[in-house]
Each structure stands twice: as structure tokens, then as C-alpha cells.
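Work Package 3 (structural annotation) set out to generate three-dimensional models for the target panel prioritized at the project kickoff. During this period the team completed the workflow that converts sequence records into C-alpha cells, so that structures can be stored uniformly alongside our sequence database. As a representative example, we reproduce one entry of 291 residues exactly as it appears in the project archive.
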Amino acid sequence: MDTIKPAIIIDSCTDLPYSYVMEHDIKVVNLTYQFKGKENVDDFFQSISPKSFYDEVRAGEMSTTSQVNSDVYIKTFRPFIEKNIPVISLSFSSALSGSFGSSVLAKDMLLEEYPEADLTLIDTKSASLGEGLIVWYVIKMLKEGKSKEEIVKWVEDNKLKVAHWFTVDDLNHLKRGGRVSSAAAFLGTMLNIKPVLHVDNEGRLIPVTKVKGRKKSIRALFEKLQETIVNPEEQTIFISHGDALEDAQYLADLIKENYNVKSIVLNYVGPVIGSHSGPGTLALFFLASGR
């Protein structure tokens, strides 16, 4: 008897291209954000264009976010459980969102009703296309016929090797989210200081260094890749951006000039993460010797 293929469930903070999600028929738990006086679903920029979203934020419109509650996860998991289909649920870093916690609550409640349910929940400790890169490898393994156990083991063994390097154009968005102090944001803006941040092994967004000027901050991301990338010729590199396509392309060109990587995928930072990082965010993701 053939082994039943597991269902892969992700959340919308993967920031993957919508076409990819549709092509591979991936089940998505959509986060929400409050914008222009109403609640919106993060649907990979299908309801609003990324340009419109980031232009509104540039003009001073505030966007706030909320986690997914356990009811949403129960409704998402239940149809698969009823058909005895194993589930692998991949969540946005628990250090940045309560969504993983909601999936755990949902699992506990469902196990009371379906004690035999096969539900594996993974806190990717990743964000944006870092989480997306993990999903990309999972879908690749699924297509290769790998078992649920093999897929889960690969994710647990490799998730902390997915390097996340970010820079932002405007420190005030990070100030709002409590990532930098008001004084640091004010001084940084005055002096054209750009932070270089990463997601650490706990899944937290941590400022690592500061450089003067945008071009230097982009080069700093590339230098971080040079320090830790493994087997570049086997890699697909992901770059996400907050409506900063030119800068994303500049970074991609820097990488291509120096490394013979398989390919580089560029996509927008979605509205949930973009609410906190703001327009001009640039983020780089790849497999590394460690974060």
C-alpha cells in the first residue's frame, strides 16, 4: 500500500510568490492586518498591490497586525484529520508571532476528538522568505517522494542553517515595533545610519551591526553571505523586499557576479511583516553553516 502523502500547511508570512503557492496547491493559514480602518487578510497581495500598500505606508498610513487564533487552525487541520491524511504545519517564528502557539492549542483540542490524528507542528524560527525557503525545500522533497518522517527530520536538522540577513531604509518602523529605541531611530535617521539585522537561533530579530548609507548596507548583506554560505552552486537564493526592486536586483547581481548559484528568487515582503519593517526593507536568505 502506498504511503499517504502528508498535507503541507503554511502561514502567509512565508512571503512566497502567490503563483508558487497556487501551482503547488499549498494550504495557507492567512494572517490578518488592520489597515485604513479595516481588517485585511494577508493573501499574498491579491487584494491590494504591493506598490499601493507600501506607497500608503510611505505616506503615513499605519498598519498593525494580529496573530491567527486556534479556531482558524482547527478549521484548517480538521478536513485532513477526517481523511486520515498526515499534516506537517510550518509556522512563522514563535519569537515574532503567537501563531505557532495557536497551532499547538488547536492540535491539543483536536487530539481530544481524534486521538489518532497525525499532526506535526514545526516552529520554523524563521520569517518571510526564510520561512519560504524551508517550505520550498519541503515541497521539493514531497515531489521527490520523501516520507513525512524524512521531511520533518530535514526541517528540524536544517532550519537553523537558513540564514536571514535584513536591512531597513527607515528606522522608525522598527522603533514602532520596539526593535530600536526612539533615540536610536532619531539619531540613525539624522546620520543616515542603516542597521544590519538577522534572525537568531531563537527566531528573534536582532540588530547585528550598523553602516552608513544604503549601498553599504546592501553590500553588508552580501558580505554576510560570503562568510557563511555552503555549496552555493547547489543553492536557490531568496531575496525579499519592501517595494525596493532595484536594490533587490543590485543585491542579486552582486551574488551572481561572485557565485554560480542555481537561481535567485525575488519577491515582496508581505503586508504582515512589512507592517513592522516598512518600505525599503531588503532581506537575504540562503543555506549557511549556521545563522
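Residues 106 and 112 are 10 Å apart (CA to CA).
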